[in-house]
Structures are given as structure tokens and as C-alpha cells.
Design goal:
The structure is a single chain. With 212 residues, the chain is an alpha+beta fold. Helices cover 27% and strands 34% of the residues. It contains 6 helices and 11 strands. The strands form 3 sheets. It has a 5-stranded antiparallel beta sheet. Strands 1-2-6-5 form a 4-stranded antiparallel beta sheet, sandwiched between helices. The protein has a two-stranded antiparallel sheet with strand order 3-4. Strand 5 and strand 6 form a beta hairpin. It is globular, with a radius of gyration of 17 Å.
């Protein structure tokens, strides 16, 4: 399947979403990879992960880049050589990336019952506003995705979802909220946006400091 969806969050931020329906061979064909990326791809034991990896390279192409424009720092954070900020995610049959002039993070997660079992690992402050109604799983998935997105923004690593990142009150219908990383020397609030896509929750975080 070609590009599934494009979201223009503002004049300097774009999100690209791919629904992974192609085989490994279809995705691999005519996809330029650096030697490092090809080694990484072939070392993956799961074909699902391989297809996710390759679909991200197709998203890069949709955004006007190739694998050769992408590099990773020692902590695994992706960067673009032209200086723009990028964040990448894939889960099961979807992948997505976000490119912006400001700090950004993105996450896509399948909505699953399992998240209710592990919520104690990442829900803390948010316990005050979430409620067990029909969209309970979606609420928890937004919180997880928002915290994952903020974790990807923070450059130093070592954050815990439960104690170092808070997401402010929201309802699923809002499609937006705010969140912040509460560690020393990093007092920043971020805009959080989210939406439902075919049983998955897409969440992304933006530094709101730049005016559109």
C-alpha cells in the first residue's frame, strides 16, 4: 500500500503514516540503504520488524529524504543531516515519522487489553483524571504514547515514564493535551496531539515555542 496518511500539524511540521501490507521483497526492492542500515536490517530476526524498518525508508522518500540523509546518535536518537528534527515509530502493521523545525517525538501503538495490566508501570499523576469507561484502553494508550513521544525528545535518556513524565488531563474527543518532562534543568511543556487509526493510537509531541 502507498502512503496511508499525511498530517500537516503546522507550517513547519509534517507527519507521514504507512500501513504495512507489502511483503519484505516488495518493500526491499529499489530501496537504497546505507551499509550500516542493511546490516541492521538483515540482523533482525522478525520479518515484521524488517518490514517496519523498510516502510520507514519509504516514508523518508515521501518526505523527500533517503536512508543516506538519516543518522543516529550513540543513544539511538535519529537525526537528519539537514538539521531538521525527526522521530520514528512502527508497531505491527503501521509505521510513522514526524519531521519538524522544532523538537518532536512520535509513537504509534495498537490498542490492546494488555495495557490495562501494565498501567501501574507508567500511570501516576494521570490516575487523577482517567476513568474506566468505554475508551479506557484508548486513554491509557494515549498516555503511554505521549510519554514515549516525550521520552524520544529528551536527549539524555534515563527517564522513567511513571515518575519523570506527566501528561495533563484530556478526553479522547479532545485529540490534544499537554505534557512535560519533570527533571532538573529541563522545565519544558509540550503540545500533545493524538488520533485513532484503524485500531491504533497515533500520538506526537511538539515543542510549542515556535509560533506558526
Amino acid at each position: 500500500m502507498p502512503l496511508y496518511k499525511t498530517i500537516k500539524s503546522n507550517s513547519y511540521t509534517s507527519i507521514f503514516v504507512w500501513k504495512i501490507e507489502e511483503s519484505f521483497d516488495e518493500l526491499f526492492k529499489n530501496t537504497p540503504l546505507t551499509n550500516k542500515s542493511e546490516k541492521r536490517l538483515l540482523s533482525m530476526k522478525s520479518e515484521l520488524h524488517q518490514r517496519g524498518f523498510l516502510s520507514v525508508r519509504h516514508l523518508l522518500k515521501e518526505a523527500g529524504y533517503t536512508d543516506f540523509d538519516l543518522y543516529y546518535t550513540e543513544n539511538g536518537k535519529p537525526h537528519l543531516k539537514d538539521g531538521k528534527h525527526i522521530s520514528i515509530t512502527h508497531s505491527f502493521t503501521f509505521s510513522a515519522l514526524i519531521i519538524s523545525d522544532v523538537e518532536v517525538g512520535i509513537d504509534i501503538e495498537k490498542n490492546r487489553e494488555k495495557i490495562k495490566i501494565i498501567q501501574h508501570k507508567f500511570v501516576n499523576f494521570e490516575r487523577g483524571f482517567i476513568h474506566q469507561d468505554d475508551d479506557y484502553i484508548e486513554q491509557l494508550t494515549v498516555i503511554w504514547g505521549a510519554k514515549e513521544s516525550l521520552y524520544k525528545i529528551y536527549p539524555h535518556g534515563g527517564l522513567t515514564f511513571k515518575n519523570d513524565i506527566d501528561i495533563n488531563s484530556f478526553q479522547i474527543a479532545d485529540k490534544k493535551t499537554t505534557g512535560f518532562i519533570k527533571v532538573k534543568d529541563w522545565d519544558k511543556n509540550y503540545e500533545i496531539r493524538f488520533e485513532q487509526i484503524d485500531g491504533f493510537t497515533l500520538v506526537y509531541a511538539l515543542d510549542p515555542s515556535k509560533n506558526d
